Amino acid sequence: MQFITAPVPFTRHQAPSLGLTLYRLKTDPRYRKLYHGVWVDTQPATEVIAPLWADHEWALKQMHLRALLRLYDDVAACNVTAARLYGLPLPPGMDEGRIHVTTSSLNASKSRRGVVVHRYGGLRVSSFFELPLISVPQLFIELAPIVTVDQLTAIGDAAIGRWTNGPLTSLSALRGEVAARDRIRDRRTAEQALDLIREDVDSPRETWLRLWLIRHGFPEPVIHPEIDCPVIPAVLHPDLGYPESKVAIEYEGDHHRRSDDQFAADNQRLEALTAEGWTVLRVSKRTNMTQFGRLLRSHLASG
Predict the structure, then answer these.
(1) Could you please report the per-residue DSSP string of 197-224?
(2) Is there a domain that residue 275 lies in?
(3) Element housing 45 (H / E)
(4) Once rounded to an integer, what is the mean pLDDT over residues 56-64?
(5) What does the radius of gyration of the chain's CA atoms come to, in whole angstroms?
(6) What's the CA gap between 135 and 169, in Å, rounded?
(7) In angstroms, rounded to a whole number, what is the distance separating the alpha carbons of residues 189 and 175?
(8) C-alpha to C-alpha distances, 138 to 50, 79, 83, 237, nearest whole angstrom
(9) Is 273 a residue whose pLDDT tops 60?
(10) How confident is the model at residue 106 (pLDDT cuts 50, 70, 90)?
């Protein structure tokens, strides 16, 4: 975890204890009204707890949620807002500006500009960095109608993985949530994703690559196959692999090219794997996947 400098919302009734008059709140541009009766200091000296990967957008989301909690103490973030706060991978453009919250108070009115309120019977809430968020298994079902099978698979891989402060839940918990529901919007998407979710996945791009291989007729690769490399010496775990054919596949993000240390480590890994008779194929966002597919088929056929 880390502490980041961010505004802490306060109400009109708390303003006097901060040395602020109503007149100053309304006239000083330093203070911004988020919702009726709730302000923030745009030049904060306060710090809030946050995950190590938290960015500016995360800070804004948590600020708005905390502001709503000043008004309603029974709400929790849900839908795409909860997914963003948990650090789960969302499709581009889906994490829009509105704040999604849920409550188990089915009759309460919580209308606010820019806020979408979901009514949720049987709501379960988790505390994530002191923020009330809908439980991850319930969130998984909530997202099923608005994403594709592959996108929900990436969300599931992330939720049960070790990245973004995970694991946030388990595959058995996700399965149990789906099985326990009599009615689920787009149950087929949820069930298909459950069949594809795997443990020990390191990133959304690894999920994408694994699913690309499956969708294009390749056997499902092993995630992080264990390869003993006495030359280094070390046991290496490439992203994906076909141990019977001794073919390893690595996804290279931009950090592999920007960091000299990472570049040197990658070369050392490549040399060690090659010494053990493995062929290493690298994939990045610039890779021609048609050519990659032909090359992989050739290696698997010869292996």
Answers:
(1) --SS---HHHHHHHHHHHHTTPPPPEES
(2) yes
(3) none
(4) 95
(5) 23
(6) 9
(7) 13
(8) 23, 9, 11, 32
(9) yes
(10) low
For residue range 193-233, list pLDDT tens digits in order.
999 999 999 999 999 999 999 999 999 999 999 999 998 89
Distances from the Cα of 297 to the Cαs of 220, 278, 281, 287, 302, in angstroms? 13, 15, 12, 16, 9
Residue 259 forms part of a structural domain: yes
pLDDT of 255 over the 60 cut: no
Closest CA to 99 of 119, 113, 109: 113
Bridge pairing between strands 47-50 and 2-5? antiparallel
Q: Which domain holds residue 266?
A: 204-302
CATH number of the structural domain spanning residue 287: 3.40.960
Residue-wise pLDDT tens digits, 75-89: 999 999 999 999 999
Is residue 127's pLDDT more than 80? yes
* Cα distance between residue 154 and residue 201, in whole Å: 9
Encoded tokens for 53: 């990967």
Identify whether 133 is part of a domain: no
Per the structure, the count of domains in the chain is 1
Q: Which of 99, 27, 14 is nearest to 63 (CA)?
A: 99
Q: Is there a domain that residue 252 lies in? A: yes
Q: Which amino acid is at 100?
A: H
Containing 131, the helix (H) or strand (E) segment is strand 131-134
Rounded to the nearest 10°, the torsion over CA 126, 131, 133, 135 is -20
